[in-house]
Amino acid sequence: MPINQKPKRGGARPGAGRKKGSSVYGETTKAIRIPASMLPKVKAMLSHRKQLFEGTAAISFPSSFSSHIEIPLFSGKVAAGFPSPADDYIEKTLDLNDLLVQKPAATFFVRASGESMLGAGIHSNDILVVDRSIDPVIGKIVICALNGELTVKRLKSMGDEIVLGAENPAYSDIIVKEGTDLMIWGVVTNVIHPV
Fold first, then answer.
1. What is the pLDDT of residues 73-97, one digit of tens each?
2. Which residues pair with 184 in a beta bridge?
3. Given 37, 60, 103, 153, the catalytic residue
4. What pTM, to 2 d.p., does this model score?
5. The domain 36-62+103-192 is classified under which CATH number: 2.60.40.10, 3.40.50.720, 2.10.109.10, 3.40.120.10?
6. Is 43 an annotated catalytic residue?
7. Which residue spans of the chain are classified as CATH 2.10.109.10?
8. What's residue 55's pLDDT?
9. Which pLDDT tens digit goes with each residue over 46-82?
10. CA angle, 54 then 30 then 14, to 5°
11. Of these residues, 19, 37, 77, 116, which one is catalytic?
12. d(CA 75, CA 92)
């Protein structure tokens, strides 16, 4: 290179930049800027999504932004009808966030698939509200990763063995043998089920 000539800057360099092809999330990615205070939540969400990508439904998290919607709660119970929407009957207002999400930082939503939990009122395509802060004790319905696949089952025991129980006689319980890769993600607290 001649003494008075400056080296070139910028431009394409072999081996530099992002690699082409699908990402670990199964779709293209895009760089964005987020507030530093949100970084831990975003990283946690992406970590869960990455773990779930292989053959399971997506997980959603409650919004950290206030979405307070007050809906009238009528006093009295409805047997087979609906009370006249008169102000006399309104007891208070109810926010579904307060009702369904007790600990937003420990809560996520996941969509159910299959019919193994029909006896527990969980149908295919229902949205499950899952709390990671609740201890997964025997008798609770849990979301767990079993050998890398997510499943929802009732936690049971049989002697010294842990059993993932189905709530449908057409499905067998799963006995967790030694060496099985089992990770309990959280306890199901509510089911959002359309009628």
1. 665 565 665 555 555 556 677 778 8
2. 144
3. 153
4. 0.60
5. 2.10.109.10
6. no
7. 36-62+103-192
8. 45
9. 766 655 544 444 566 666 555 666 666 665 565 665 5
10. 100
11. 116
12. 8
